[in-house]
Design a protein that fits this description.
The complex is a heterodimer of chains A (369) and B (510).
Chain A (H helix, E strand, L loop, with lengths): L3 H19 L1 H6 L2 H4 L5 E7 L14 E5 L7 E4 L18 E7 H11 L13 E12 L9 H15 L18 E11 L1 E9 L6 H21 L2 E9 L3 E4 L1 H6 L8 H15 L5 E9 L5 H15 L5 E7 L8 H9 L6 E6 L5 H9 L4
Parallel strand pairs in A: 7-8, 7-10, 10-11, 11-12
Antiparallel strand pairs in A: 1-4, 5-6, 8-9
Helix pairs in contact in A: 4-6, 6-11, 8-9
Chain B lengths: L11 H16 L7 E6 L1 H9 L10 H15 L7 E4 L4 E6 L4 H20 L10 H19 L1 H13 L47 H4 L2 H17 L11 H8 L4 H22 L1 H20 L5 H12 L8 H17 L4 H6 L3 H5 L8 H11 L2 H8 L2 H6 L2 E7 L4 E6 L2 H12 L7 E8 L4 E6 L8 H15 L3 E7 L2 E7 L4 E3 H6 L1
Parallel strand pairs in B: 1-3, 7-8
Antiparallel strand pairs in B: 2-3, 4-5, 6-7, 8-9, 9-10
The chains are: A alpha/beta (369), B alpha+beta (510).
Chain lengths: 369, 510
């Protein structure tokens, strides 16, 4: 049975994508999706799509149930808020639907909505890799690649035209000429690799709330860059007065105290690049998040490293300053003074709150680097 | 034989089971249309179920959504459709190929219960028994419109119609409301898709250069004025408030021909499905009654027992926030059968004050079976509950009513008092739990605006939904639309004029 339902299902999915697009800002702002991330899919909660009807509000809902329980006993939570404004109401109301969206689709929606330019991998350093694709059929070839169906179809055609095909005894004998073989073409595919270095200040002034912002923003940066590169690596560096490379889990959950010395993190980053990510082979992205504190004496060294060693090899170096009640928020000014607001590789963004993530992503990735 | 896509043929084993189960069903006096079983896999069953049982139904995204949910529920092991049967002559029923033999027996017995119900219950007797053909026809017409006017255009219009689909008069197939003929069918094949102005005077065909002689301007103007005057004089419009809002719209809204046809299709399908909504408890109860009777008395072998018991427990499981129609239905039939077997009904019984005596009442009349057949013929859920839900039953099955509590934000058990429980249940079953709405005035304020009236019965409308529904309604009526309802005891009017929503309350406040 050709499934007619597929067509309706696809229409539905189109509509869902439209809804996600409409609500993208909301999804970008809330970190809830990250927790749901599967390998290639995220489940996005959408209010159940339905055509509206006249129906009763909260005070008209309710019903009859069966079982134990005292009068006044609670059965299921309803929805907070004003009557008539509320949405979901457990069994009696409508439900929230989980829609699976692939990360690629999500990236495409993100790109469209934020009008992100497609990234052009830098230089000609991209490695070209030959790939074989079986796309055509030829009359010669090795037996292991014989295309049986085509061969028989060819033989059948010939027998029909010869008049030697007899429906009563439908024997088909392919001649040598009838044989068909699968054949390949060599396509060279550029393999563009990229590495993202996340650098974060974990000194005491970066609280969980700030880290949640970083985590959410990083999710979207990952999603976008992943859609632009065939291979994507991620590395995490944390620092206070000293820096080290850590795994993702540690990155988001470490909290140290003590001072802040940004240059130490730059040093670790450079070391890492030198060892594993040759800038001639890799597109390098660095995202640094901090609340803007740095020991004053360290600024000079940090800036020098950034200017002379880091910026020249990065596609993009993004500095996101997350507003914190404790941080001085000075570093972004220091960077501005040193580089001006317009610098080819350096992008600065102040992220005051979760709501600012949307614009911040646009600022960071809007350059198409 | 209707042109339905053939799935797999029944295996010999299933054919034999069908023969046996059908014979048992007939022996009990069940009376059904010929019943054809199709074997499908889970994916197909989900697809068919998404289309409400009709694989040939018109295309629409919500069927895709339905499918998505069924398919997900199935793949996560949360739900599984065992059986699907459609009211048609012949009846079609779908069997899940991967089910075990016990389940197939049970499902077949269950299906014969439904088929008997479809054929004999009074609320179904006006339904289209050739619905498979009709649905296929609807599907073709709508696909045709989609080809001509674009998928999105047609689909969006269907959305609007669906928004109004429950604004029909579920009793009208049984009661003659008015004398005039049904509206002319407007689905012609011509391309005249424009709305016809009701005040357009009659034009005779003519060559351009003759037009001003054949259709003189003066008489045209006079006729136009006359028509306009007639329209204004019309008095009440509609003469009586009209519950079939969809019919009113298809007769009076400025629709293009294809739109009128689509609206008609949605309305026709709404009427077809209405009795299923009206008899859910009875229909499922009846089918459950018969599958359990046939299985336990005839069809079940020792090896079937565990599987059967497991399946039954699943079907009849209760939930504290949702009354299981299978359970409630079958228990009520059994209660009726028992009461009528021991004569526990009528004046003597009702007047008996002694609780003990009532419990042990036994004047063996043995009319139980006869009674339930009668009940399944004439009742719908509303009258079924009204007539047969007793205090005793309510206690035995621990029924309670629950409602939403503003203060706690929870649904809470409200009462275990019989009158309250029964009232709540009847309330939920009235008009299938949807508000009752009439067209009050099709020429509101003498400006061609549409006024609907919600017959308030204690529960308020949900405002955001009402607003969205008015938006849909506006797309059909193309003039401002209003609905009159009650909010906190006061009458309010919610309006949509094509750009903004207003409430008469806002005006008062402002």
């Amino acid at each position: 049975m050709s499934m007619k339902i597929d067509r309706d299902n696809n229409r539905f999915k189109e509509i869902v994508k439209g809804k996600i697009r409409q609500n993208l800002r909301k999804y970008v702002t809330h970190g809830e999706m990250i927790g749901r991330k599967g390998k290639d899919l995220v489940s996005i909660p959408l209010p159940q799509l339905d055509v509206p009807h006249f129906r009763y509000g909260q005070n008209g809902r309710g019903g009859v149930g069966q079982g134990e329980g005292e009068v006044g006993q609670a059965l299921a939570p309803g929805e907070d808020g004003e009557p008539g404004q509320g949405k979901a109401g457990s069994d009696a109301g409508e439900h929230v639907m989980q829609v699976d969206v692939s990360l690629d689709e999500l990236a495409a929606i993100l790109g469209q909505e934020l009008q992100l330019p497609r990234i052009e991998p830098k230089g000609k350093a991209n490695i070209e890799q030959d790939k074989v694709r079986y796309t055509s059929v030829r009359k010669v070839g090795p037996e292991s690649l014989r295309h049986f169906r085509r061969t028989y179809v060819q033989a059948l055609k010939r027998q029909l035209s010869e008049g030697s095909y007899r429906p009563a005894d439908p024997k088909i004998v392919p001649y040598k000429d009838d044989r068909r073989y699968r054949s390949w073409e060599t396509v060279s595919e550029p393999v563009a690799n990229a590495v993202i270095l996340y650098i974060m200040d974990v000194s005491g002034s970066m609280t969980d709330e700030q880290k949640e912002i970083v985590r959410t923003e990083a999710f979207w940066i990952d999603t976008w860059l992943r859609s632009q590169y065939t291979g994507l690596e991620r590395r995490y560096i944390i620092h206070d007065a000293a820096a080290k490379e850590v795994d993702e889990e540690t990155f988001y959950h470490t909290r140290e105290s003590g001072g802040t010395r940004i240059s130490t993190a730059y040093k670790v980053a450079l070391q890492l690049i030198k060892e594993k990510f040759d800038p001639s082979q890799w597109n390098i992205y660095a995202f640094q998040f901090s609340d803007g504190d740095n020991w004053g004496e360290d600024n000079r060294q940090s800036l020098a490293m950034l200017k002379e060693e880091i910026l020249p090899i990065c596609n993009l170096f993004c500095y996101g300053q997350v507003e914190s009640p404790y941080g001085s928020g000075e570093y972004i000014r220091v960077l501005e003074e040193a580089f001006g607001t317009e610098h080819e590789q350096l992008v600065l963004s102040e992220i005051a709150s979760k709501e600012a993530i949307y614009e911040s992503i646009k600022t960071f990735l809007g350059k198409g680097k | 034989m209707p042109a339905l896509h053939r799935f797999r043929n029944l295996t010999e084993e299933l054919t034999e089971i069908q023969r046996q189960i059908e014979a048992h069903a007939r022996n009990y006096g069940l009376d059904f249309f010929p019943t054809i079983f199709e074997v499908v896999d889970a994916e197909q069953l989900n697809a068919v179920a998404a289309y409400g049982g009709f694989p040939t139904r018109y295309p629409h995204w919500r069927f895709g959504m339905e499918y998505e949910q069924l398919a997900k529920g199935y793949s996560y092991g949360l739900q599984k459709i065992y059986e699907l049967v459609i009211n048609n002559n012949p009846c079609y029923a779908y069997l899940l190929g991967s089910n075990g033999v016990t389940d197939q027996k049970l499902v077949m017995a269950h299906v014969y219960g439904h088929c008997d119900f479809f054929k004999n219950n009074a609320w179904f007797n006006k339904t289209d028994r050739r619905m498979i053909d009709t649905m296929a026809n609807h599907g073709n017409r709508i696909r045709n419109y989609m080809d001509r006017f674009g998928v999105e255009e047609v689909e969006n219009f269907i959305d609007c119609c669906l928004s109004l689909e429950d604004l029909i008069d579920i009793y009208s197939p049984h009661i003659k409301r008015r004398d005039d003929a049904p509206p002319p069918v407007r689905h012609d094949e011509d391309d005249d898709d424009d709305y016809v102005d009701p005040t357009a005077p009659t034009r005779f065909q003519s060559k351009d250069y003759l037009d001003r002689y054949v259709n003189p301007r003066k008489s045209m103007d006079a006729e136009r004025a006359q028509l306009k005057q007639d329209m204004e004089k019309k008095g009440n419009f509609p003469p009586e408030p009209m519950r079939d809002v969809m019919l009113f719209l298809s007769e009076n809204a400025p629709l293009k021909n294809w739109q009128a046809d689509v609206l008609g299709i949605v309305r026709e399908e709404a009427y077809y499905f209405a009795p299923q909504g009206q008899t859910k408890i009875m229909n499922e109860g009846w089918a459950t009654y018969w599958h359990s009777t046939i299985m336990t008395k005839h069809a079940m072998e020792a090896k079937d027992l565990v599987c059967y018991a497991d399946h039954c427990a699943g079907t009849l499981a209760g939930s504290r926030t949702r009354l299981n129609p299978y359970k409630l239905g079958v228990e009520l039939y059994r209660d009726i059968e028992d009461r009528w077997n021991r004569g526990a009904y009528g004046e003597d019984y009702d007047n008996c004050e002694d609780w003990q005596e009532k419990i042990h009442w036994n004047k063996p009349t043995m009319k139980g079976r006869e009674k339930i057949f009668e009940v399944r013929k004439i009742h719908n859920d509303l009258t079924f509950i009204d007539e047969f839900l007793t205090l005793d039953f309510c206690r035995r099955h621990k029924l309670f009513s629950f409602g939403y509590q503003q203060e706690s934000g929870f649904y809470e058990i409200e009462s275990r008092e019989f009158p309250n429980v029964k009232q709540r249940l009847l309330y939920n079953l009235t008009n299938m739990g949807r508000p009752i709405i009439y067209v009050k005035d099709g020429n509101y304020k003498n400006r061609g605006e549409l006024l609907l009236e919600h017959r308030f019965s204690g529960a308020e409308l949900q405002q955001n939904f009402a607003q969205d529904t008015l938006t849909s309604l506006y797309k059909l009526w193309r003039r401002p639309v209003h609905i009159e309802t009650k909010l906190e005891g006061a009458t309010v009017l919610w309006s949509f004029d094509g750009t903004s929503h207003t409430s008469s309350e806002d005006k008062k406040k402002g």
